[in-house]
Structures are given as C-alpha cells and as structure tokens.
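[audit] Reproducing an earlier prediction to check determinism. Same input, same settings, fresh worker. If the tokens differ from the archived copy the diff job will pick it up downstream; this log only records the rerun itself.
[audit] input (290 residues):
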Amino acid sequence: MPRIALVTYDPRPEASRDLDLPVLLDALRAAGAEADAVYWDDDGVDWGGYDLAVIRSTWDYSWRVAEFVAWAERCAKVTRLANPAEVVRWNTDKRYLGELAAAGVPTVPTRYLGPGDAVDLPADREYVVKPTTGAGARYAARYTPDQHDTAVRQLARMHAEGLTAMVQPYMTGIDAGGERALLYFGGRLLHASRKRAVLARGTAFDADKFPHPGLEPWAATEAEREVAERALAAVPEAPELLYARVDLVDGEDGRPRVMELELVEPNLFLDLHPGSLPSVVAAVLSAAAG
C-alpha cells in the first residue's frame, strides 16, 4: 500500500479553495493507496514516511518563495517529490520565460525591471505589469500609456517589497480567443481548458481577481500542442515531470504563445474534466511505485 502525500496549503480559518483535493484523495484511497492531504509548512510532518509527495495546491507559496523552495529541497532529500525540487526552484521565478524564448519557444514578449532598474514602460500600447514570483494574478494590472504614473507607483510598491516586475504587451488575442491551458499528466496531454481574460481595465494591481473567469473545456489544436510540447522540452535538463500545465494565448500573428508554464501547483480542473480522474490516479500510483 503506497503512502502518498498530497501537498496543499493551510487555508484556515477559511475553507480550502482546492476542489480537486478531496476528489483525488478519495480516488487514491479507493485504488488502495494511503493518501493524506498535508500542509507544506507543517513542521510536524514526517515526509520520509511517504513514498511520494505530490505538490498540489500550495497556493500561498508566492508570498514565501524562499521558504517554499527550501522546504521542497528538504522534502526531496527524504522522499520522492513531484515535481522535482530543481523544477520547483526554476519555475517559481517567471524569468524562466526568458530562457524559453532563448530556446526558441514562442512566448509572450517579456522585459524585467528589478529594484534600482530604470523604469521604461510602453508608450504606444496597452501592457501588463506583474511580479516574477506570483500566482492567481497577484499584483498584476493592465495599463494604457496614459496610466504611466499609476504603473510607476505599482513598480515602486513592488520594488519596495523586493519584487522584480515583468512588463509584457497586453495580448489582445485573449479578448477573442481567451487563454488556453493544456494540462499534461504522466507525460501525456490529459485535457485542455479555456478561460477569458483575467485583467480588466481599471482594476487595481492589489485588488483580488477571479483567476479563472468563464472556464470551459477546450479541444487543444495541433498548433497549441506543438508549442506546449516545445516548452516542456525546453525545461532545463528535461527532468521527469509528473504534471505540467502550459498556458497559451494568441500573439498578434494569431499563433499560440506561452504565457506561463505551470510546473509547481497548477489547478487540475477535475471538476470540469471528471473523466480525467482515472488517468491522474494511475499516474500518481505509478510514480509512487518508482
């Protein structure tokens, strides 16, 4: 009987927002595994007592990145961690988009502004400012050129907190085609979903945003799969990934580009794709068996 930890966050006093977690726990237990939902920052957990720790919904990590990466490295020393700790370290900093672009993967054009860097914002088009370490559109906002001063204030706030900013053109293709999320599990495309634009004009960067508006099932196109698989192949040293989500949006040429590569704690959207559950369970059990 394999022992499996599904690693999540401590939501108390609120209820967990992870709808996948109870479904996956029940399915793994029904398949014969001993499965537990475990908080990543619970100091009382014996990670070495598990055959596999699967990072699932550590959705508070972006506020505590260094602490989270250190936990992943400790955990990986005593049990098998999915995804691997080196992948966690690489993927928690969105400067990986620059590495993907350098490897020839079509990506959303991105510039980085760290504390002390000269502020240089687009003057001829809408753009997005967000941190290189963030999730759920935290500290992300959409600006027009005439909102330069507001964007500068956001940068000052982020830099005061030690954050590096990403500046990207607002990809207008998202308004028509949405953002597509291709979810891979056990090395295979599991399913795809599409959502509408998250960032509305005029929404403050520090306001709460609904992360998956208009979410619906999607049939991935051949072009989308090709770009997604090029991105996965470009992950340094091509490690074995139990799961991966590639978020795509159309560029000005109408072709898909990588907006984000989610290798740490992507939502699986099993409520939208209940038929994917058996494949997820089989892949987790296979990983636990080594």
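[audit] rerun output stored. Observation attached for the diff report: Helices lie at 20-30, 65-78, 85-91, 96-102, 148-160, 173-177, 222-233, 277-289.
[audit] end
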